[in-house]
Amino acid sequence: MKHILVYGDSLAWGIIPGTRKRLSFNKRLSGVVESQLLAQGQAVRVIENCLNGRRTVWDDPFKAGRDGSEGLAQAIEICSPLALVVLILGTNDFQVMHPHNAWMSGQGMEKLITIIRQAPIEPGMPVPDILMVVPPKMLSPTGPVADKFEGAEHKCIGLAEAYKKVAAEQQVYFFDSADITTASRVDGIHLDENQHQLLGQALADVIKCIVKIQE
């Protein structure tokens, strides 16, 4: 059995747009990926490490532990051996308190890639492959998240291009969620249940190819 770690934020955590509730595992991204791969005869387990508000490499001034680079090496060590790490981060880099642009988030992802590759795993265990996933294109934020994400849909312009460049330079796999869906029309930021299904199915196909390459 091959283990896949999904390292993400509230999008992958499965928050239901407009609420503080969470989709059940079988309905959120990681669960859809796992069920799709199992149905295709792939012996896999998808492990979630997803935290609401997690950035690539920056702190949240109001909540502790949101810097995605902190604790990542230990997460790799805990979950090893891993065949693949799926990074789904970036959305929170554009919260209103951050003056960030797409290039900066790309550099954040590059740091996470380095941390994964240098994690203190046990001797003989494989360094996992990495799949960078660009979050869905944000819409104008509405509802409870509107103030927090004011202007985010403009600040994140160019994120896919920035991530694709980093992926090519670092020789990791790349997937743009915008090929499948935008963000939820309920709040402009997260994913609706049907969008988890669509994106999970698409990622399962990508991951299946990566896992086969490893065999």
TrEMBL record:
InterPro entries found in the cross-reference section: Ester_Hydrolysis_Enzymes, SGNH_hydro, SGNH_hydro_sf
Residue ranges constituting the SGNH hydrolase-type esterase domain according to the UniProt record: 6-197
Source taxon at top rank: Bacteria
Molecular-function annotations in GO: hydrolase activity, acting on ester bonds
Pfam families: Lipase_GDSL_2 (PF13472)
PANTHER family noted in UniProt: SGNH HYDROLASE-TYPE ESTERASE DOMAIN-CONTAINING PROTEIN (PTHR30383:SF29), THIOESTERASE 1/PROTEASE 1/LYSOPHOSPHOLIPASE L1 (PTHR30383)
Record-given protein name: Lysophospholipase L1
